[in-house]
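Shipment paperwork, digital attachment
Item: protein structure file
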Amino acid sequence: MARVSKTRPRVDETPLARHIGERLKKARLAAGLTQQQLAEGRYTKAYVSALENGLSRPSMAALTFFAGRLGLQAATLLDDEPLAWARLEADLALASGRWDDAVSAYTDLLEDAARGESRAELLRGLAEGLVRQGRGREAIAAAAEAARIFHAGGREADAALALYWLSAAHYQVENSSEAREILKSILGKVRAGLKVDPDFEMRLVMALSTNESREGNHAAALAYLEEVRGLAGALDDRRRANYLFDLAYSYRETGDLEAALRTGIASLELYRRMQADRETAGLENDVALSYLSLGNTVRAADLAAASRARFEELHDDWFLSHVLDTQAQILLANGDAAQAEERAREAFDTAVRTANLKAQVDALLTLARARKELGDDQGSLDANRQAGDLARVVGSTGLVRRALREWAEALAAAGRHEQAFAIMREAVQLS
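Attachment content:
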């Protein structure tokens, strides 16, 4: 999987959902309210029914609304314990894209010695958060343990989702063969009748496409994309927007930039129609990079500026650091090395503040190129060295290889051939 979607594939009927649903129903009956009466004014009877049957998990806003109507504290619908509330907050952080908060929350909860299937749920959440931060190497153990616990408990749908994140983690550390085999195993179970979310099969096929693309098997990758196209017909607008978002990235991976732009723009229109600001901002940045690859820096700059404005309004500095680096690359492509250096430094500082390690590496590489254009050879080498050292810490093989190659090229251009050879040899050994 070259990337993971911003919307996580979910498996319903988790113990937490059932637990909340049972308490909600008991409290509603005790208050003498029908489902329609409880929902009136904001939600629907169908939504209350789904909650009470454990088919959906409420947002914090919904939980507070229902608790207020029932004359209860929201925590009462959870477990009357701070731990249950902390768990819900961790899940909400993950669902809303606050990966750093989610990872910290799951880590803290796991330190409270959770056991059994509750531990598996926390581990799966932690694994997803780590993958989304680009920390695949750390995610492997959490995802694998979660899958083992779920499997032992007979919760095969939940095990499948844990394995999905295990595959994503292996992909990030360049273990593509293992990632692909895991995905094929899950897909076989889904096609044999395993009940999962409607879009989960599509995401598995999409992930297989990006795995084949990385290996250079573009015909196989595009065949998977055509299969995905057939699966996407019955999706609602949000899931279709997610599908098009991933499809655009996959087309970019296979080198079809025109198709990437067409599908990316179609996804962007759906996100805008739904007022999905975070998804829209992320897609605007991705489409900006596609335009930059095609040499259309004017359109790229417009989209990157729109993305930046949205993330600033959302106060989402984690993603903002990526957009700032995109703007730095655009400035560099336009020949404005001085502004590019300033923007790359801003991207790096923002990434440091939010502990976004991958964005730090990307910003340093852009900074190195900008300094080279400005004639600051030593400053350029310093940024390349820092990027290479930091990439090794991140542990993503692809990122390490890219950082080391740029560093080696910079060393060679500076006449430091022996050191350049050593760094390039390290990069080649990662291939």
